[in-house]
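WARN no homologs supplied; continuing
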Amino acid sequence: MTQNKEVIRHDWTKDEIQKIYDTPLIELIYRAATVHRQNHNPDEVQISTLLSIKTGGCPEDCSYCGQAARYHTDIKVQRLLPTETVLSHAKKAKDAGSTRFCMAAAWREVRDNKDFDRVIDMVKGVNEMGLEVCCTLGMLTEKQAIRLQEAGLYAYNHNLDTSEEFYDEIISTRKFDNRINTINNIRNAGITVCSGGIIGLGENNRDRVSMLLTLANMEKHPESVPINALARVKGTPMENMPKVDIWDMVRMIATARIIMPKSMVRLSAGRIEMTEVEQAWCFMAGANSIFAGDQETLLVTPNPALNQDIQMLSTLGLKPMNKKKELITNDN
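OK structure emitted
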């Protein structure tokens, strides 16, 4: 361990994080890589599989999302999948090397109905396979979160998307505080938190720093921090936004790694437009998890095929994390 090991902090200022974000790129990557090695095995990358268990028809107006009912996209609306189908996908994911299985439903919020009862059964089934089971179902109450926790839910994804200051520019059907309330409900139920955001929505660098500030100053850092590059979906208000610059992704990943040393930093949406070399820079900067799976069966936006990812990791001298990540209980 080096003497300048990062101290776990929850009292960052925006200017402090901005200074890190603006560090000359090579120096920033070196610092982030150092922090990564102090807190994680740098040779391992967790492979997570995402399954859309209910697709499209969402009443929200998130400007980037092709699943919003008000936008005319090529995404096919699909009702909640049968439990057996979901468990079959989970088994295939585990056999292919995934250690986390995330189930996504295009709901604005969880409702106490038969569909939620079915999701509870899915969570129980995936948990029994020994996978980390994650859900992203929209807003939920603490009582609903407790039901999920009791069923064996390991993590809940609820991204901030962007900064509090820029939030109203991309979504009008809910408020930033709704996001925070759901995250608090997840925490209070004893479920680990997966929360990050998207870059490329038209935000500026201060917005990116502000989003990271919100995450880093939580009483407990999210165990998982997905960094997404906007996936431009035809038919949404964001379809003509420019492609996210790879160095902006690297800066976000490196900054997240430095200010939240213990968190898993996930290289998430947007990988389909990245070369192997560009993804390698992201791993160097501290990313240690990816989503895997093909669009037809697992996702609603394109993603590299699993065999391509395995080959890429092999080329880079990386290996899939081969065991379930333990719940982080120390001060993070």
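Residues 295-299, 325-332 have pLDDT under 50 and may be disordered.
OK
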